[in-house]
Amino acid sequence: MFGKVLIANRGEISVRIARACREMGIESVAVYSDVDRGALHTLVADEAHHIGPTPATESYLNVERLIEVAKRSGAEAVHPGYGFLAESAPFARAVAEAGLVWIGPHPDAIVAMGSKVESRRIMAKAGVPITPGTGDPVDSPDAVLEFAAEHGFPVAVKASAGGGGKGFAVAHDKTQAEAAYSRASREGEAYFGDGSVYLEKYLPAPRHVEIQVFRDKHGNSVHLGERDCSVQRRHQKLVEECPSPALDPETRGAMGAAAVAAAEAVGYDSAGTVEFLLQKGEARGGAGEEFFFLEMNTRVQVEHPVTEEVTGIDIVQTGIRIAAGEPMPFSQEDVSWRGHAIEVRINAEDAGRDFAPSPGSVTAYEEPGGPGVRVDSSLRGPGPVPDSYDPLFAKLIVRGPDRRAALARLRRALAEFRVEGIATTLPFFEAILDDEVFVSGDYTTGFVAERMGALGIEAARPGGGEAADEETPREVEVEVNGRHFRVRVFGDGGEAAGRGAPPRRSGRTTRRAAGGEGAITAPMQGTIVRVLVEKGQEVAADEAVCLLEAMKMESEVRAQRAGRISEVLVEAGGSVRPGEPLVILE
Fold first, then answer.
1. What 3-state DSSP class applies to 120?
2. Domain assignment present for 429
3. How far is Cα 276 from Cα 257, in angstroms, rounded to an integer?
């Protein structure tokens, strides 16, 4: 077993890994950027090393620096957690070339599962169900019509290099074939530099169900059952349950076997998750269930705790043991499931404003407790949630003897969870506990889009909810001439202060105020990643014009109507505030 492990990550997953290491008698090494100096993960680990400035590209994504710190600290292995470099084959190879052990699957498995087209080919050969689709890219809208003639509408048109909902369009009938093909190809070229597209049968109302798998270096494979991750916004999960309210025993067994087959097909040798789309079985007249391979995540998942709570198996520790060359500490016959667990992601987002990022300083923080309640968090008390990284800062996990008891426990725990200073997703979770569709368990991936209006969630006020008292000071962080200061503000201090907004970049051209109904404006504070249109270009209604990033989350800003672009007011790399005009549409 390892004596020391470097954790190439931050936040709650870094805390989780450090705690697992301590229980195993392994020393842990944390890393941190400028903004994370003194963060909880640096205090929980046995030692912590500074790796660079706040931007992830200069710190948590700096491969050379991470390896240099690992070797200097005496670490024997590197655990990447999730996000950042967790699914980077080049990083995995660099770790091995440095004489260190990568706590994750071998690089070839990462590469194979990272390609949508290649992974579909591998899964089909292994007998894992995949949605009907084209094995190779198609070159014209006519291919959409030919595909629909065989498989029926709707048809999904996907950029070969796409992901996260980008380069994705749906043709519901033959009149939409050309538009769907053009949009997917255009966005694929704009976002990923690759305009090639392929086709799949579109599943209009699926559930998103995943299977936790392990495979060790001795060829032993095991699955730990499923997690239902269907409640999502912008293809990002919000709620996870184990077991799924939708699976019958027959489908659960078949899905588990398919996940193991997927792991064996690529010679997997770590912890991983095989994700599927599940729907009512059309081939059986609407009876039963069908599932199709979606992708494989070659790392530990954010939602792994719900499986731990129901199976009693420590997923993080098991992954470390496999990386150290130990055989699987349990067999499939040893795995059993008891009770029901639910995880909700506490993000720095305002659900009442379409989950707009809400970074800043948490001024009050109190976690719930009691039987069956677990919180994995990057905070121990008040502190910052930086705008430079993912909006997730805590996870609330509850367990009960059945789903009804787990929901009751979740309601109680949410009432005890106190977070002030920023807007969070807590009101969303409180609202869905009164929603009949969620409570019944009969939800799909369309839940948020379909039910959001009925939930009645109001936008948070500046400061995270409560109106600011003119006489009550609050602390916010600001940067002046490259130095960080914590200052006291009386009153609301404007939206930027209430949300801990970063200062605007200097050297930018001042932009005019919003230009009436023709202005397409920024829905939130963020950074322009890419401008997708140019002056004089004709755009269709709902076509993306800019890609905006806030807290590691990219969002498309779309035209509300068709028209011609008369002016482009932003460029890549520029920062914008909510309501600021981006382009003018004639």
1. helix
2. yes
3. 13
Q: Which of 460, 451, 447, 480 is nearest to 578 (CA)?
A: 460
Half-sphere exposure at residue 113, Cβ-oriented, CA atoms within 13 angstroms: 28
Q: State pLDDT tens for residues 322-341.
A: 999 999 999 999 999 999 99
Q: Are residues 143 and 57 in the same domain?
A: no
Q: Which of 333, 362, 365 is nearest to 348 (CA)?
A: 362
Residue 526: predicted pLDDT: 82
Sign of the four-CA dihedral 67, 73, 76, 77: negative
d(CA 520, CA 583): 5
Sign of CA dihedral 531, 536, 538, 539: positive
**Spatial contact of 62 and 85, defined as CB atoms under 8 Å apart:** no
Summarised one tens digit per residue, pLDDT across range 167-204 is 888 999 999 999 899 888 888 887 777 888 989 999 98
Residue 109, domain member (yes or no)? no
Given a contact cutoff of 8 angstroms between Cβ atoms, the answer to whether 342 and 238 are in contact is no
Other residues' Cβ atoms within 10 Å of the Cβ of residue 6? 30
* Whether residue 370 sits in one domain with residue 257: no
Residue 153's domain spans which residues? 132-201
Which letter does DSSP use for residue 124 in this model? H
Residues 243 and 181 in one domain: no
d(CA 70, CA 4): 9
The separation between CA 35 and the C-alpha centre of its own chain, rounded to angstroms, equals 22
DSSP summary character for residue 387: T
Instruction: Specify whether the CB–CB gap between 241 and 80 falls below 8 A.
Output: no
497, part of any domain: no
**CATH value at residue 31:** 3.40.50.20
Does the pTM surpass 0.85? The reply is no
Q: How far apart are CA 165 and CA 257, in angstroms?
A: 28
Question: In CATH, what number is assigned to the domain containing residue 538?
Answer: 2.40.50.100
